[in-house]
Amino acid sequence: LMPRLKSFLLFCLVVGIIISRGLVSDKKDLPVIAIANYGPHSSLFESIRGIRDGLAKKGLIDGKNVSFEIVDVNFDTSLIMQMMSKIKAAKPKVIVAISTPVTQAAKNMVQDIPVIFMDITDPVDAGILLQPNQPNGNITGASDKQDLDLVVKFAKSLAPTVKRIGMLYSTGEANDMSLLKNMTIAAQANNVSLVALPVVSVRDVDVRMHQFKDKVDLIYVGSSGIVQPSLPTIVSIAEKMNIPVLNMNAEEVIDGNVLASYGVSFYKVGLSAAELVYQIFDNVAVSNIRPLYPSSNDHEAFVSKKRLEEIDFKIPDSALKSITLVD
Fold first, then answer.
1. Can you name the residues that pair with 72 across neighbouring β-strands?
2. 0.85 exceeded by pTM
3. For 220-268, what is each residue's pLDDT tens digit?
4. Which of 108, 138, 160, 213 is 20 to 30 A from 275 via CA?
């Protein structure tokens, strides 16, 4: 892990809240920003880092005039309702809900506290918002919706001969179903075949990955709560089949865990969420706070030199201009 993620993990271990203990803070006189996270993952950590940095720049600093309380369920959906009950009972100033399952639980259980969602691809498809650009009751947020047309174009720039892109998706997450729909459209628009295989749980990943053998030229890993935690397995199997992996999360490339990434900066999603949280502290009603979506400028491209050597993969010189190469 990069030093900043190591520091963040250490922070979570020291001051993070375990569900069974509830929300406990030694900063009881400060307004609480409760961050309900799905589980430990580099992209989600980056979103949290972004929201903390964004609020700090506006003068809202943990331990000084606000208190951050960060909770997660380690990707165990059966614990989400319990987590939300404890957060609601603590009566925070605002709840930041990260991921589709966590935000769906917040929508169903919390009506009297502002909820800011983060890292949801399509909040309308997920049933969070009724209209893409309008808040819904006490909920608004910052989407991580990627421009999948740009993703496919980037994949073709990395490997101009690519004709078949493989992708795993979770059948149980609205986020994944939205990704499948939009990736299908993007692939067709760029004359590429999408080979999408469903997974119900992480146990399915190994079997499904082997089904890509000789059937795809590149594998794309999207923002799935089931698929992303399985990235080490995906990369290991893909590289044995000499198939390059394109991930939506830059941190995994920067850490040398995957070949390439193209997607929205989750740190910038966090910065966007910070803008919305700040408006809550500025006494703006949630009904007047419009959701935010990434722009093309929020997309970034990274390639790992280490992984290039591992699979002996060559990138065309024309593609290198828009890529950040990392050791």
1. 37
2. no
3. 998 777 898 899 999 999 999 989 999 988 888 998 999 999 988 889 9
4. 108
